[in-house]
């Protein structure tokens, strides 16, 4: 199995949930200084504030970072903040579903690095 399978290439070139979310109530950022990847996650919660109604991302990054962001955001759509807060590094690497070299693990975890700031970054309405 190679790192750049066709599904990963597709997720990187045409990521799901890519673009700014105008009515986001939380914006989270993460940068990977090693390779220059930068992501910004936009999250809109439901009226109760307990569930992610929609999440999108924007930024620039390598194929691994973009594909990982696409896959992670696909997973969190409609989830509660409690369940999202329980996502671990291992979960993200499982979602990515490809073998990674040690240098690429930080790229795959970049969207999670932003997302894990969510409990502390929640703004009250």
Radius of gyration: 14 Å
What structural category do the secondary elements indicate? alpha+beta
Reading side by side through the largest sheet, how are the strands ordered? 1-2-3
Number of strands: 3
List low-pLDDT spans: none
Oligomer: single chain
Mean of all residue-level pLDDT scores: 87
Distance between the termini: 46 Å
* Gross CATH architecture: Alpha-Beta Complex
Q: Give the number of helices.
A: 6
Number of domains: 1
Run of helices and strands: HEEEHHHHH
The fold-level CATH name is Sufe protein. Chain: A
Strand content: 15-25%
Percent of residues in helical segments?
Answer: 40-55%
CATH class term: Alpha Beta
What can be said about the biggest beta sheet? Answer: 3 strands, antiparallel
Structural shape: globular
Describe the structure.
- It comes from Terrybacteria sp. (strain RIFCSPHIGHO2_01_FULL_58_15).
- It holds the Pfam family NifU_N.
- InterPro entries: NIF_FeS_clus_asmbl_NifU_N.
- The chain is of the alpha+beta class.
- It has one domain: Sufe protein. Chain: A, CATH 3.90.1010.10.
- The chain is built from six helices and three strands.
- A three-stranded antiparallel β-sheet has the order 1-2-3, with helices on one face.
- A hairpin with a 6-residue loop joins strand 2 and strand 3.
- Helix 1 crosses helix 2, helix 2 packs parallel to helix 5 and helix 4 packs across helix 5.
- The longest helix has 14 residues.
- It is globular.
- It starts with 5 loop residues before the first helix and ends with a helix.
- The model has no long low-confidence stretch (mean pLDDT 87).
């Amino acid at each position: 199995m190679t790192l750049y399978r066709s599904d990963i290439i597709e997720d990187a070139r045409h990521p799901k949930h890519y673009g700014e979310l105008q009515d986001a109530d939380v914006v989270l950022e993460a940068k990977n200084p090693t390779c220059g990847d930068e992501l910004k996650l936009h999250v809109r919660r439901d009226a109760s504030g307990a569930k992610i109604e929609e999440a999108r991302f924007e930024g620039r990054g390598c194929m691994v970072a973009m594909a990982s962001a696409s896959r992670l955001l696909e997973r969190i759509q409609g989830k509660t903040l409690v369940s999202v807060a329980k996502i671990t590094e291992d979960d993200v690497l499982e979602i990515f579903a490809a073998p990674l070299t040690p240098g690429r693990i930080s790229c795959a975890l970049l969207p999670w690095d932003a997302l894990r700031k969510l409990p502390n970054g929640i703004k009250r309405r």
